[in-house]
């Protein structure tokens, strides 16, 4: 368990609140503690049982090729474009006696895979345009090893190696128990990877001289998790003075202070001539952008920019950077994705190439392989090395003329001290960029425990809709104020399943939960899916009873036709009451399912009972009772079911093997975790206020799945009514039950006696509670819960309504603290409590608070931003937020659907050219396929599901055909020819996006073939004036393209396409034209209408003539 | 005159607090050293200079100027020659190669003392990495250390000592008000001041133990207002011997009493003075102190007795006339060198008579010694 030690020195030295009170660490702890605990559990879970995966050494050689005697870089690029797989094959065959085969590889163009292994260097001379070039092929030594994952778990483990989230270690022998670190070093060699081939699931490793087959252990890298934990811990344990505004988000305050006008002074005002990026007044919406820039510069704490797709967020960021650096400030620029950061750097680079932006000195922090394009040049190490080399060259050139003393010492230092300029470049950098976690590689943060000496003046976080609170806090602790930019209608943060599962460790589940208790939930859940579940209703009585009372409302019937046998001679204590069973069975018609006690099935009655159950109900036996039920009866039931053609295999089969049991338990956790994730993803459906949405269906499932035999709490203890006391009583019973041992039963009687004595003596409620409170303080934990049960019982017994109310009120005022204690105990609450914090993005949290969804409104809600969002401090936040309303990306035909369906017509407005302003319609004029901008191609394909991710080959073909058509057009029409006033280059950018990775791979293969390219997802053809990117929707957020092809893949079910956020991102990427490929019939069916009304709208509302059947 | 010295010692009262502070620490200046060298060559810096001499790019030069101004190494305003003038801090960097860097809001253990003997109030600062204070211990106190600069007195090589700030100079920018008193026992620190009449000024040494580690330092700053004489005379005054001090001879006028205190060494002309509770103006009470003071006879009779004692010491066998005369001159010379005065010793005949008389007096009470029987013998063998 993670220990949190709050250091009072730091807390006491913080500034005081407006009412002269000190900040309270407990308020922060309520939110932070669960997050830290989950991370702690997650880390522990990761470290237990690391997966072991089989590997195979393959006869494949890796070689690097280099081109010599080229004159300039353009020439080199041109040559590289021409070198294809076929080219190599041909040349290699010409030279060698051996027949070489080139394998496809996902890596950079300089690397090729050759079969069989190449052992010597090869030079290939080629002539092009009358010039001679030399291509050297040099083999790289090492073993090419591919991993063979057996299941999904292993697959994710391997992916984590490639993402450097895990480390691979060689397992020499099986069954060796390794205890100490020293032993690990003896038995497991670290796997030193030279090159990795992500898509081939393979790596090139240092030769091991091992047999061809061996195993590796995947040890997760928990350093990022550690960093996150450290950040959260330092926030709560040792807060610095500049954390004050961050801490205030969590601080409970009284509403009076809140009424103050929370405006801030405008110190920096930007004159008209000073604007650099926001200088074109004809753009509608520019005033909003300008206003935000000024707010960002002036705010003492926060500023929030909500910008829908294409509304000019990046331009606004550039202007803030420009204005702030001009004022000598240091800025930290972060985002959850690399692309978002690199986009900004690319723009800065463009300006710098023009000889402008002289006061911005940016540094990019991160790993080279994650960074794209020109942003690589801004990597901290690169900058230092390049500058050192350049300055040294200049100094040496001028050595002949005499150098001054300072120049000499400078030259000396540069030459002799390695990395001399690196700390200096970091020091003078005024814009430091990186991902929210990657930024921690900045040398000053790396070793300093978030205790940095010179905090940044400002932190800008882009794509904040993808950043969770815990992720935001990591870089936030390094800056003095925070500019948050994003759009809550775009994709939500990605949360790892493992982290969600760690939630269960936090719930204080009973020790035997996995063996017994969770089965109760599972039984009722399975029953709700049109099944009869045979189980034991008499054991685990409290849980079962609790479930019964609730599931009756959900249409799940409990058949318990048993009576206690009074005849003591009988072995069996229970007697079957057949008439009652039959009465219950009649109710089955129209029910969702049923639970039946296994004792009802005797040899005598089994057949007749089964015959009375409607044939559309499945029959299942819960593994919980596997040992109690007679195997003969199981066999008999199985046989009857077979005859009746009734599905009966689910639990029945799993009871045969013990192993499958454990895995089916896992399924319960998976089922819950998955649904919890879905509920969050579908949160916008809640607003539809309908009961037939997937959202409400999933909520229903969750209600049954989650253990609900503990107290699930209320908004406010003061509001509870007498009926609610039953809930509290039940929770107390469970609580005391968990603590129970034989001796405690005596205590129960003792408490009961004492209470009744007090009750008899005092008739006044005040006196009674005063005495009971004294008793409570003296009692131990078990006695305390009994005590509450007894009090509730006494309140219940009061007949007169008025006196009962009076007693209830004094109970509330005296025992409110017990209620709080119960809240922390209840399972359901703990789950939802944590999820509320775990899921939402920082921008959503600030705007709406933790209580966004009514199903989460179970716990105490405090008057603070984190709980209530903007509502808590209206004036404060309204003065700090700007919503951008105009979009500058999409053709009006494309933007219409996005505006109407995701933004309620309020945002994503089109600049329409009124009052001589910018008109997007004329800007996006485009003669290809006259006038058709938003086209749906009906594809009658079928989705295929291989492994995990589905694909749809027919859609691939259609998109490819459509693309080829477009490519033919672009070859004759370079972009600069069509768009006369454009400053852009000749290339049309095309994005082929899809929702599934499987489809992405299929598309990539097609396009790879088309471009004859070694690269997999990015293609470029200068002659055809086109560049293509293939990407999943989730990764494409924050990017745009001239033409977008979207493949829906799904033909049977909607899958996760029903997420409003995901759909929004997928439909708002195109500038000129958007082509949707999918099965139109399916998406306009009633099935889709129920599941995802927006998707259905998309399929039905686009004007008819825009559809073209393929 | 013989050299003698006085060492005053006393235990320091060290107060320990756990505080949050903003500091400025001297650290290696790195590239700023080269920049300041360039600036001192040209009397200042500007972007143009950086581009032409150090071949910086434009954005780099721009930021460099801003940073130099931030660290107050150059002026904020351009002078008439379009140069940002180098400041005193900047010159210091060019000279020493180190500059002050900020360190803000961290937690430290601070060792304070109020002893007049120690010129700095802050003895040392130790950085605390992760150690939690109890809520009860927190109190509000204003130490008034802002802007205080000091030399770190504890420097060690072992790992623990890395926690002590490793720079020579630290400036405290801000000391936060809420702090905790650190009640750990850390061992004693003793401060000692050495005075010697030749140097006339004290050197301050601090030695002792902190956390079982020997600490020994001498501070270069002298206590200027205290001189040897002041300390010495006040010690004599404490003993009630001030009126016996002969300023001209720099020695104490001592009555001769052969059977007196053992601490008086007539043969060496010194006397060990021990004071149990010495109190010195402006220093206060110090630990018990002992020192050797030169002594000379108080009057002529003492002087003669003293000389006779020295002479007796010298005669330890058969002594002929010539030898006797030689010994007498030696003693008289010695006395003169110390006392600038001497009394003429009696002739050999007179001295023998005197000794005989003495021994007769002695014989009434004592058994006769070997020396007595020797003296009974005739002076020359002929007689």
Give an overview of the whole structure.
With 1110 residues, chain A is α/β, with parallel strands linked by helices. Chain A is built from 45 helices and 33 strands. In chain A, helix 42 (1060-1066) links the parallel strand 31 (1041-1047) and strand 32. The relative contact order of chain A is 0.08. Helix content of chain B is 29%, strand content 33%. Chain B starts with 5 loop residues before the first strand and ends in a 7-residue tail after the last helix. Chains A and B meet through helix 1, helix 13, helix 14 and helix 15 of A and strand 2, helix 1, helix 3, strand 6 and strand 11 of B.
Shape of chain B: elongated
Quaternary state of this entry equals heterodimer
Structural class of chain B: alpha+beta
* Overall pLDDT of chain B: 81
Q: Specify the biggest β-sheet of chain A.
A: 7 strands, parallel
N- to C-terminal separation of chain A?
60 Å
Please provide the count of β strands of chain A.
Answer: 33
TL;DR?
Chain A contains 45 helices and 33 strands.
Strand and helix layout:
The complex is a heterodimer of chains A (1110) and B (383).
Chain A: H1 8-12, H2 25-47, E1 52-58, E2 61-68, H3 73-82, H4 85-95, E3 101-103, E4 111-115, E5 122-128, E6 131-140, E7 143-147, H5 152-162, E8 166-171, H6 181-187, E9 193-197, E10 202-205, E11 213-220, H7 223-237, H8 244-248, H9 255-258, H10 286-298, E12 302-306, H11 313-326, E13 331-335, H12 338-353, E14 362-364, H13 380-397, H14 405-416, H15 422-428, E15 431-435, H16 443-446, E16 458-462, H17 469-476, E17 482-486, H18 497-505, H19 513-528, E18 531-535, H20 541-551, E19 556-559, E20 562-564, E21 574-576, H21 578-586, E22 593-597, H22 606-612, E23 618-621, H23 631-644, H24 649-654, H25 658-681, H26 694-705, H27 724-739, H28 742-761, H29 765-778, H30 781-797, H31 801-825, H32 827-838, H33 842-848, H34 865-868, H35 874-878, E24 881-883, H36 892-902, H37 920-923, E25 934-938, E26 944-946, E27 949-951, H38 953-972, H39 975-978, E28 988-994, H40 997-1011, E29 1018-1021, E30 1026-1032, H41 1033-1036, E31 1041-1047, H42 1060-1066, E32 1070-1078, H43 1080-1083, H44 1086-1091, H45 1093-1101, E33 1107-1109
Parallel strand pairs in A: 12-17, 12-24, 13-15, 13-16, 14-15, 16-17, 18-22, 18-23, 19-22, 25-32, 25-33, 28-30, 28-31, 31-32
Antiparallel strand pairs in A: 1-7, 1-11, 2-4, 2-6, 3-4, 5-6, 7-10, 8-11, 9-10, 20-21, 26-27, 29-30
Chain B: E1 6-11, E2 14-28, H1 31-42, E3 44-45, H2 47-53, H3 58-70, E4 74-78, E5 84-86, H4 88-96, E6 98-113, E7 122-127, E8 138-140, E9 148-151, E10 169-175, E11 178-181, E12 189-195, E13 202-210, E14 213-223, H5 228-239, E15 245-246, E16 251-254, E17 264-265, E18 270-275, E19 279-280, E20 284-285, E21 289-297, H6 300-314, H7 321-339, H8 348-365, H9 370-376
Parallel strand pairs in B: 16-21
Antiparallel strand pairs in B: 1-12, 2-6, 2-10, 2-11, 3-5, 4-5, 6-7, 8-11, 9-10, 12-13, 13-14, 15-16, 17-18, 18-21, 19-20
């Amino acid at each position: 368990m993670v220990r949190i030690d709050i250091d009072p020195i730091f807390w006491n030295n913080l500034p005081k609140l407006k009412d002269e009170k000190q900040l309270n660490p407990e308020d922060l702890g309520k939110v932070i503690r669960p997050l830290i605990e989950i991370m702690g559990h997650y880390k522990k879970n990761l470290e237990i049982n690391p997966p072991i995966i089989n590997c195979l050494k393959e006869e494949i050689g890796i070689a690097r090729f280099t081109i010599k005697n080229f004159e300039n870089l353009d020439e080199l690029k041109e040559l590289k474009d021409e070198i294809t797989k076929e080219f190599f094959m041909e040349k290699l065959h010409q030279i060698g006696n051996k027949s070489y085969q080139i394998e496809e590889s996902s890596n950079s163009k300089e690397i090729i895979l050759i079969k069989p292994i190449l052992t010597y260097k090869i030079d290939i001379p080629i002539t092009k345009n009358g010039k001679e070039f030399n291509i050297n092929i040099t083999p790289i030594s090492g073993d090419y090893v591919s991993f063979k994952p057996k299941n999904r778990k292993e697959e994710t483990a391997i992916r984590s190696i490639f993402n450097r989230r895990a480390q691979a270690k060689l397992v020499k022998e099986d069954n060796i128990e390794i205890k100490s670190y020293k032993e690990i070093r003896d038995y497991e060699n670290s796997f030193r990877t030279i090159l990795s081939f992500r898509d081939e699931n393979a790596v090139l490793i240092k030769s091991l001289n091992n047999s061809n087959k061996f195993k590796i252990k995947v040890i997760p890298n928990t350093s990022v998790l550690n960093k996150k934990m450290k950040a959260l811990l330092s926030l709560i344990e040792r807060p610095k003075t500049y954390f004050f505004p961050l801490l205030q988000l969590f601080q409970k305050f009284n509403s009076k202070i809140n009424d103050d006008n929370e405006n801030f002074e405008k110190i920096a005002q930007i004159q008209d001539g000073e604007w650099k990026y926001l200088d074109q007044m004809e753009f509608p919406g520019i005033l909003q952008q300008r206003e935000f820039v000024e707010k960002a510069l002036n705010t003492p704490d926060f500023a929030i920019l909500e910008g829908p797709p294409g509304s000019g967020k990046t331009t606004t960021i550039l202007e803030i950077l420009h204005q702030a650096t001009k004022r000598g400030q240091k800025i930290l620029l972060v985002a959850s994705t690399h692309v978002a950061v690199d986009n900004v750097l690319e723009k800065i680079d463009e300006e710098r190439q023009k000889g402008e932006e002289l006061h911005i000195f940016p540094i990019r922090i991160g790993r080279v392989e994650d960074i794209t394009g020109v942003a690589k040049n801004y990597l901290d190490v690169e900058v230092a090395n390049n500058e050192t080399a350049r300055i040294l060259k200049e100094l040496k050139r001028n050595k002949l003329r005499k150098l001054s003393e300072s120049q000499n010492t400078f030259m000396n230092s540069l030459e002799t001290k390695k990395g001399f300029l690196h700390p200096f470049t970091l020091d003078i950098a005024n814009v430091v960029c990186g991902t929210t976690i990657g930024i921690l590689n900045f040398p000053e943060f790396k070793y300093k425990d978030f205790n940095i000496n010179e905090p940044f003046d400002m932190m800008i976080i882009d794509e904040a809709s993808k950043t969770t609170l815990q992720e935001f806090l990591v870089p936030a602790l390094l800056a003095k104020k925070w500019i948050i930019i994003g759009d809550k209608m775009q994709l939500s943060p990605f949360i790892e399943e493992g982290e969600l599962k760690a939630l269960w460790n936090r719930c204080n589940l009973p020790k035997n939960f996995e063996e017994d208790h969770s089965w109760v939930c599972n039984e009722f859940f399975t029953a709700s899916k049109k099944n009869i579940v045979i189980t034991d209703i008499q054991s685990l009585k409290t849980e079962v009873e609790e479930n019964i009372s609730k599931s009756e409302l959900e249409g799940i019937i409990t058949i318990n036709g048993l009576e206690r046998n009074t005849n003591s001679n009988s072995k069996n204590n229970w007697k079957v009451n057949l008439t009652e069973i039959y009465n219950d069975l009649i109710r089955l018609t129209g029910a969702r399912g049923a639970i039946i006690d296994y004792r009802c099935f005797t040899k005598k009655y089994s057949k007749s009972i089964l015959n009375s159950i409607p044939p559309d109900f499945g029959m299942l036996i819960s593994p919980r009772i596997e040992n109690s039920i007679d195997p003969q009866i199981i066999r008999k039931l199985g046989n009857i079911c077979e005859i009746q053609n009734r599905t009966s295999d689910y639990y029945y089969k799993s009871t045969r093997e013990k192993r499958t049991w454990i895995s089916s338990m896992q399924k319960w956790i998976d089922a819950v975790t998955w649904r919890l994730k879905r509920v969050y993803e579908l949160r916008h459906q809640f607003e539809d206020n309908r009961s037939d949405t997937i959202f409400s269906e999933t909520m229903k499932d969750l209600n049954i799945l989650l253990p609900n035999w503990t107290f699930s709490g209320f908004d406010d203890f003061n509001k509870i009514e007498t009926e609610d006391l039953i809930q509290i009583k039940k929770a107390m019973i469970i609580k005391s039950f968990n603590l129970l041992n034989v001796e405690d039963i005596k205590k129960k009687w003792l408490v009961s006696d004492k209470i009744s004595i007090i009750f008899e003596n005092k008739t006044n409620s005040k006196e009674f509670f005063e005495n009971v409170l004294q008793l409570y303080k003296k009692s131990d934990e078990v006695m305390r819960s009994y005590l509450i049960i007894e009090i509730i019982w006494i309140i219940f017994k009061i007949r007169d309504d008025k006196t009962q109310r009076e007693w209830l009120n004094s109970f509330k005022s005296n025992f409110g603290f017990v209620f709080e204690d119960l809240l922390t105990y209840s399972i359901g609450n703990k789950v939802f409590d944590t999820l509320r914090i775990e899921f939402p993005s920082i921008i959503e949290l600030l705007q709406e608070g933790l209580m966004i969804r009514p199903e989460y409104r179970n716990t105490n809600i405090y008057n603070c931003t984190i709980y209530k969002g903007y509502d808590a401090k209206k004036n404060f936040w309204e003065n700090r937020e700007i919503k951008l309303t105009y979009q500058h990306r999409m053709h009006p035909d494309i933007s219409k659907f996005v505006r109407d369906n995701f933004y309620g017509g309020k945002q994503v407005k089109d600049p329409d050219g009124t009052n001589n302003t910018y008109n997007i319609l004329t800007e996006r004029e485009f003669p290809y396929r006259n006038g058709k901008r938003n086209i749906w191609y009906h594809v009658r394909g079928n989705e295929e599901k291989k492994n995990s991710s589905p694909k749809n080959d027919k859609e691939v073909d259609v998109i490819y055909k459509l693309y080829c058509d477009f490519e033919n057009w672009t070859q004759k029409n370079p972009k600069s020819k069509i768009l006369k006033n454009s400053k852009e280059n000749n290339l049309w950018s095309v994005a082929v996006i899809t929702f599934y990775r499987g489809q992405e791979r299929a598309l990539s293969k097609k396009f790879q073939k088309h471009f004859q390219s070694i690269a997999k997802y990015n293609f470029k053809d200068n002659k055809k004036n086109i560049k293509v990117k293939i990407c999943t929707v989730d990764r494409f957020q924050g990017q745009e393209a001239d033409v977008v092809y979207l493949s829906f893949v799904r033909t049977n079910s909607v899958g996760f396409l029903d997420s409003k956020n995901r759909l929004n991102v997928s439909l708002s990427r195109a500038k000129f034209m958007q082509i949707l490929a999918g099965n139109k019939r399916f998406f306009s069916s009633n099935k889709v209408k129920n599941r995802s009304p927006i998707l259905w709208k998309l399929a039905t509302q686009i004007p008819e003539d825009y559809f073209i059947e393929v | 005159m013989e050299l003698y010295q006085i060492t005053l010692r006393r235990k320091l009262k060290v107060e320990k607090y756990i505080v949050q502070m903003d500091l400025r620490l001297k650290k290696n200046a790195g590239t700023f050293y080269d920049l300041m060298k360039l600036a001192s060559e040209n009397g200042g810096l500007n972007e143009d200079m950086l581009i032409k001499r150090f071949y910086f790019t434009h954005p780099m030069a721009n930021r460099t100027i801003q940073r130099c101004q931030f660290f107050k190494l150059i002026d904020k305003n351009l002078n008439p020659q379009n140069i940002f003038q180098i400041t005193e801090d900047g010159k210091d960097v060019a000279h020493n190669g180190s500059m002050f860097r900020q360190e803000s809001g961290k937690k430290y253990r601070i060792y304070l003392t109020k002893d007049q003997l120690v010129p700095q109030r802050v003895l040392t600062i130790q950085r605390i990495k992760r150690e939690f204070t109890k809520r009860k211990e927190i109190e509000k106190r204003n130490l008034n250390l802002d802007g205080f600069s000091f030399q770190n007195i504890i420097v060690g090589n072992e790992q623990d000592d890395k926690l002590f700030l490793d720079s020579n100079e630290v400036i405290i920018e801000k000391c936060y008000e809420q702090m905790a008193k650190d009640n750990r026992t850390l061992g004693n620190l003793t401060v000692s001041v050495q005075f010697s009449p030749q140097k006339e000024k004290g050197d301050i040494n601090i030695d002792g133990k902190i956390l079982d580690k020997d600490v020994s330092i001498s501070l270069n700053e002298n206590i200027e207002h205290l001189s040897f004489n002041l300390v010495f005379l006040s010690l004599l005054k404490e003993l009630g011997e001030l009126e016996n001090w002969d300023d001209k001879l720099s020695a104490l006028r001592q009555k001769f009493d052969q059977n007196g205190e053992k601490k008086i060494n007539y043969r060496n002309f010194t006397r060990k003075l021990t004071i149990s509770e010495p109190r010195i103006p402006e220093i206060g009470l110090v630990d018990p102190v002992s020192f050797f003071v030169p002594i000379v006879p108080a009057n002529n009779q003492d002087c003669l007795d003293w000389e006779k004692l020295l002479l007796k010491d010298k005669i330890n066998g058969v002594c002929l006339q010539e030898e006797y005369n030689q010994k007498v001159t030696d003693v008289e010379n010695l006395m003169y060198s110390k006392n600038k005065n001497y009394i003429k010793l009696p002739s050999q005949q007179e001295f023998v008579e005197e000794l005989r008389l003495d021994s007769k007096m002695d014989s009434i009470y004592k058994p006769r010694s070997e020396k007595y029987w020797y003296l009974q013998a005739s002076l020359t063998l002929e007689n």
